Structures are given as structure tokens and as C-alpha cells.
Amino acid sequence: MSKTFSTFAVLSVCVLLSSPLVSTSAEMKVEVLTVYWRSAVDLVESVSMAKSERGKVVAAAATNSLIVRDYPQNIVAMRELLKELDLKRRQARISVSFIEKEQLEKLGVDISWQISGKGWSVGNLPPGWSGGNALAVSAGGEKGKIERGNRQNLLIMEGAEGSIFVGSEIPYAERLVSYSERERYVAVGTVFKVVGISFSVIPRVLDDNMVELQIVPRMSVINRDKGKSDIFFSKASTIVTLKNRESVLIAGNESESLSIVGIFLSGYQTSGQKSSFAILLSVAIE
């Protein structure tokens, strides 16, 4: 009997030593944690790693704060974790404009195009290009000007998403439908109307002099069942790395018979002739 009791006592002590030291008399409290730089909604899962089994973390989007209910020691741990996560992120100012590739060819601008991802071509600009409302380039000893149309300026927080709008009137909508079915973004026979095309862009600041941009083609559609929705062509995305304040040209890969980027950047000139465009993109770290 004594031996059995002794064994039980030893086991009880072992269980207590291996259990977390949480006071059963501690009362749970509610506290509001303010989030300054990040989205409170995005931080719920990460901050919840410090809560107890009975704890709860809820985001208050209106005030960008986290409402936590837990034991005092867990709340302290969540507060410290939030300090490590809620850091000010850098911003990237992205300037975008569209240029007809025919204009570049007429002026004899020699662009060094390279394949970048599925359906993309990225061109390095030759010496002589300058900023401003127009681009000055040398052509046969004379200066020519390429007017930059549809200029867009985006200021995007690192890791956040911006949008480069291309257009709402799509000359080759049937080709977009064929591509979407071929790549299985939609089921064959799905009936929808294309109402807009754009490029989703997410910047990541690598250091004080380098920025990485993830660019994904996006199509806005309307169908009978789901109403308006967006289709992200993730398989046709690309990543472009630029130096701070550097500019590059981005276009579709003409060697591919059905390039989603090429379709996006197809259009008509004022004369009614078919035209192909390139995106002039520059980035500055702020």
C-alpha cells in the first residue's frame, strides 16, 4: 500500500513538472492592442501563436487594432510579439506608361529584349533615354520624341498589391476566353464577359538600391452565376528586379503564339490598324 502510494506521488510530481506553469486562479483579461503600421486583420494568425488554449484574438478593422482575451502572461507575450511584427514598411513609387512598339522601331531604338517568365519580354533601355513627359532618343543623329500615353503613378507599401490598369475595351476578348479555358482558369464552355484587364503588381524592397516587382495579369469578368470577379493568371506571372530609379520596358513574348501578356498589350492605333504596346516602368524607393 505504502509502495503504491509512493509510486503515485512520484508520478504526480513528474506530471506537474512537465505541465505549463499556468495559475488556475489567474483571471482572463481583455485588452486592446493598437496596430500602427500593418493591417490588424493580417496579424491575427501570427499574434495568436502566443495565446493560450482558452485565449482569443479578434481584429477590429475599423480601428486597426487587435482585441485579445487571455491570461495576463499570455497578453504580455502577444504584446511583445506584436512589437516585433508591427514594423514600418518601405514604399515603392511606380511610374507606368504605355508606348507603341512601332514607334520604337520607327526611331531605330535598339532594345535588348530578354525572356522573363511565361509570355514576357523585358527590355533594357539604351543610353540616351531620359525622364520627363516625353522620352528623348537618338535616331540617325536626330532627336525624336515618343510621347508616353496613359501614364499612371502608384505608391505601394512593400508587400501590398497595386494595379496597373490596361483597359476596359478589349480588342481580342475571344482570345482571352480561349487562353483561360486552355490554361484551366475557367471551365470549358463558361459564359462570361470581359470588362477590364490590368496587371497586379507587388513590390518588395531588397535593399536601399534594389526593388523586386511581382507582376501578374488580371482579368475582370462578369458571369451569370458569380457576378463580377477577378481571374489572376498566376501561371503567367513574372518577377522583375530593378535598381532604384531605374526604368525598363515590358512587353509580350512575340515568339509565343498565345501569350496572355501579348493579348493584354494588343490594341488598335487611331488609324484602325492593329498595334502592339510595351509598358515603360520605373520605380523609386521611398
Average pLDDT confidence is 79
From the alpha carbons, calculate the radius of gyration and give it in angstroms.
Answer: 28 Å
**Helical proportion, percent range:** 10-25%
Shape: globular
Instruction: Supply the number of helical segments.
Output: 6
Structural class: alpha+beta
Number of strands: 17
H/E series: HEHEEHEHEEEEEEHEEEEEHEE
Distance between the termini: 76 Å
The residue ranges in which pLDDT falls below 50 over 5 or more consecutive positions are 1-24, 130-148
Report on the biggest sheet: 7 strands, antiparallel
Kindly estimate the percentage of residues that lie in beta strands according to DSSP: 35-45%
Description of the molecule:
- The structure is a single chain.
- The chain is built from 6 helices and 17 strands.
- It is of the alpha+beta class.
- Strands 4, 5, 6, 9, 15, 16 and 17 form a 7-stranded antiparallel sheet that branches. Strands 10, 11, 12, 13 and 14 form a 5-stranded antiparallel sheet that branches. It has a 3-stranded antiparallel sheet with strand order 1-3-2, covered by helices on one side.
- A hairpin with a 3-residue loop joins strand 12 and strand 13.
- The longest helix is centred in the first third of the chain and has 17 residues, at 2-18.
- The radius of gyration is 28 Å and the shape is globular.
- The termini are far apart.
- Residues 1-24 and 130-148 have low confidence and may be disordered.
